[in-house]
Amino acid sequence: MPPSFRGLAGSPCAARCTVVHGGVPREGPGNFTSRRPLRDDPPMRPALLALARCGLAAALALASTACSATTSRSLPRSALVERAREGREPSAGARAQHVVAFASAQIGHRYCWGGKGPDCFDCSGLVLRAWGSVGVPLPRTAGAMGDALADVPLDDVRAGDILWWPGHVGIYAGDGWSIEALDSRHGVVRRPATNPYRALRPAGVD
Asked: For the chain, which residues make up each domain, given as ranges?
């Protein structure tokens, strides 16, 4: 079991959690990093207001054209951890177990942009290689995976499924845990699966 560490902030998959020794994660209030308040010097205020207006306009434009199914949350926060505590984990098939074993073997490897192994990975590169190890091809990016793969309902999420956040993906390792190529600071880690937006599964996988 990995040593205790706190949840991450400032990344697409930020979580408020604490990893503890034992089979199921436990939530807590900690974060690796703290957020600094936005600078509010008087000369900066007009520029910041203009940027905020531009950002809001761009977000509204994107929202009008984007597919809401790929950005909405279908999994309640902490639902996978709570389900694991209650002992309601569905069993995974042989291929899915191999996917988890592949991802687990990469824990400790460094993160690199565009990396697909063997020495470093980005988030989608790790997922792509893990499923590729059992002969299942996947789209290259987190966004493309979210568009192409079917959602898995909470009660059926099992080890090997793909956990999805906006701009980020990981592998569900079972028992409330996730394996992810997180960022350049942390590399490939195992952490509580407290806040994924969606769970996905490749077509034809039992």
From this structure: 71-201
**Contact between 131 and 202 (Cβ < 8 Å):** yes
* Contact (Cβ atoms closer than 8 angstroms) between residue 205 and residue 136: yes
Provide the β-strand partners of residue 121. Answer: 111, 116
**What confidence tens digit (pLDDT) does each residue in 138-167 have?**
999 999 999 999 999 999 999 999 999 999
Identity (one letter) of the amino acid at 49?
L
Assigned token pair, 47: 């520029």
Which CATH number applies to 71-201?
3.90.1720.10
With b for 16 or more beta-carbon neighbours within 10 A and e for fewer, the 108-135 pattern comes to ebebbeebebeebbbbbbbbbbbbebbe
What predicted TM-score, i.e. pTM, was given to this entire model?
0.70
Q: Phi then psi for 34, rounded to 5 degrees?
A: -105, 150
Burial of 38 (0-12, 13-18, 19+ CB in 10 A): exposed
